Amino acid sequence: xxxxxxxxxxxxxxxxxxxxxxxxxxxxxxxxxxxxxxxxxxxxxxxxxxxxxxxxxxxxxxxxxxxxxxxxxxxxxxxxxxxxxxxxxxxxxxxxxxxxxxxxxxxxxxxxxxxxxxxxxxxxxxxxxxxxxxxxxxxxxxxxxxxxxxxxxxxxxxxxxxxxxxxxxxxxxxxxxxxxxxxxxxxxxxxxxxxxxxxxxxxxxxxxxxxxxxxxxxxxxxxxxxxxxxxxxxxxxxxxxxxxxxxxxxxxxxxxx
Length: 257
Hints:
about 260 residues, 10 helices, 7-stranded parallel β-sheet, alpha/beta, about 15% strand, NAD(P)-bd_dom_sf, Rossmann fold, SDR family NAD(P)-dependent oxidoreductase
């Protein structure tokens, strides 16, 4: 077994899986988590890399699912936590099922907040640990036709900065990764393949993962992945919210609505 352990949520595909590959390459034992059986397939690709790979299939939208993960970790010290699990939801808010938008909030906000508190308590007691939280540039703008998701990412972006301030005098670092549209299963799962953003060219998940990992290793407060997204993030600070919402509508409004 390696001398260092990384816990990565949402690791079955996309950014989380690519981060798992990086961590394995740098000698971290892994605990990989997702709410689908595909986590086993992802883990199998990392067998033979010289590190131990364990999996947890759990619903991180629930306290019980997060407790499953915590039980798997046990008393082992966690050197890196990547809080990457997230869920999207497209289309107009007034047309969405309550269960669907609640799942987004419970996954992105409630479950992530609960897990972060539990893990940061341990890291603070050890005075050591690195945390990477997957936020989004979506959190910088009102998300017309993706309203709940953007709201959850605004929470995570803000929350990460607050935690970083509270832990600034400890050996624990907090970094927030802010990707733009990325080539993952996200848009299909969010029912957004009938939107401009769902069908446009997107950033490579491996590039986004490397950007986030390197920023975390340096202890950077936040990083926006991709030049185009850096420009969009900068624009969001000077353009009125009403115009930002209209810009987002142009990307996320489904065809025919």
